[in-house]
Design goal:
Four Helix Bundle (Hemerythrin (Met), subunit A), mainly alpha, 2 strands, transferase, two-stranded antiparallel ribbon, about 70% helix, Tetracycline Repressor, domain 2, 2 domains
């Protein structure tokens, strides 16, 4: 398998959706708890990234299988690297299993370095990641797909990136003693993490929402009933807009209640390019033309958060 073919199979350009929550969670761990464990951070990053590559490869393989079974295989799609000279089908399957076991192994290693709560949260994320693209009715083809993708990646990755660095800072813990398993949660700390992760949750959910809005007619023809089908295209576009503005409101709230430094209010500068992009999306929802707006707004919003969160750290240590 050539490197370009592999990168196309795993859609390497989409991994930015998991990298930003990882960076934000890591920076917040240092900002809020003054803790950074480079070893745990690297292990988690490796497990997270490889598992993300695995789920994408599974998704493309399932698209390939369903398309060939229905005799409507489209060689313009990402999955066209499968079954041709680039990547034989058996190599794709072997690659998926190899990446899955590597990601799982790194996850188990991380549990030994931290505690059992990482195992629980990681297991839930693993299950959602697999079911998101695999099975008779993948989560991505259901009306709850946006919620699963947004919460799993937007909150799950941020939480784990924080927790692997600050697992002994009193955020939460899981204790297994004989027949008893108990989970203790510091509500204030968990609420803090939820609020600061809302921009990631909303902007990641919007990537899928934009995709489903643009594919609505095709999805209906193929009996895929996603969120825009149930609430209507008009209200799906309104929701798309509202989630971006909700991201900035979450930042304002975080600053107002002292979860983030006042310097984070400078992220509101990003409202300008986000608003301009939304005007283009509101005018037309065409996959080839305007789906990319969801990616642009994701990058703009979260880049601003990363920059000013890093600035908050610098000012704190100066």
């Amino acid at each position: 398998m050539s490197i370009p073919a592999f990168l196309k199979l795993v859609e390497i350009q989409t991994k930015i959706a998991s990298v930003f929550p990882f960076i934000i969670g890591t920076l917040f761990a240092v900002y809020q708890y003054d803790l950074f464990n480079w070893k745990n951070t690297l292990i988690f990053f490796g497990s997270m990234l490889i598992f993300d590559l695995t789920t994408t490869a599974i998704n493309n393989y399932m698209d390939y299988r369903k398309a060939t079974n229905n005799h409507d295989y489209d060689y313009r799609t990402t999955s066209n690297v499968i079954g041709q000279e680039q990547i034989p089908e058996k190599v794709v399957i072997a690659t998926i299993f190899t990446m899955f076991f590597i990601a799982t192994g790194l996850g188990v290693w991380l549990v030994f370095e931290t505690d059992l709560l990482v195992l629980l949260v990681g297991f839930i994320c693993f299950c959602i990641g697999i079911l998101y693209t695999f099975g008779p009715v993948p989560l991505s083809r259901m009306p709850l797909g946006e919620i699963f993708s947004g919460v799993t990646m937007g909150f799950g990755i941020v939480f784990l990136a924080i927790y692997v660095n600050a697992y002994d800072a009193g955020i939460a813990n899981l204790i297994w003693s004989g027949e008893w398993v108990s989970v203790k949660v510091n509500l204030i700390e968990v609420i803090r993490i939820i609020i600061i992760s809302l921009p990631c949750i909303f902007t990641i959910a919007n990537i899928m929402l934009a995709n489903n809005i643009c594919d609505l007619d095709e999805d209906i023809r193929n009996h895929r009933y996603t969120l825009p089908y149930y609430i209507g295209k008009k209200y799906a576009v309104i929701l798309f807009n509202a989630l971006y503005y909700g991201s900035f409101v979450a930042i304002i709230v975080s600053v107002a209640i002292g979860f983030l430094s006042p310097i984070m209010l400078l992220t509101l500068i990003a409202v300008i390019p986000v608003f301009k992009n939304l005007q283009k999306f509101n005018a037309e929802q065409v996959k080839a033309k305007t789906f990319v707006i969801s990616i642009k707004n994701f990058v703009v919003t979260n880049s601003a958060i990363v920059v000013f969160l890093a600035a908050s750290l610098i000012l704190e240590y100066v």
